């Protein structure tokens, strides 16, 4: 998904999004590629699945946590 579309959907400024996407890319959670003048980001679902498994086992005592998060714009993310 293009960075601009992610920014709109999340309701955060592009500069803030850029910082977070850079950190997610550094952690292997997303990959990016240039398409013309756009940077396209893709989630690395394998890494995300491994992170959820680790957190569930080590932080939630093996129980699935049912948490929801909202953006500053009030949109529910999960």
From TrEMBL:
Domain of life: Bacteria
InterPro entries: ArsR-like_HTH, HTH_ArsR_DNA-bd_dom, Metal_resp_trans_reg, WH-like_DNA-bd_sf, WH_DNA-bd_sf
Entries under Gene3D superfamilies matching the protein: Winged helix-like DNA-binding domain superfamily/Winged helix DNA-binding domain
TM annotation in the entry: none
Molecular-function GO terms, alphabetical: DNA binding; DNA-binding transcription factor activity
Residue ranges of domain HTH arsR-type in the record: 1-63
Protein name (database record): Putative transcriptional regulator
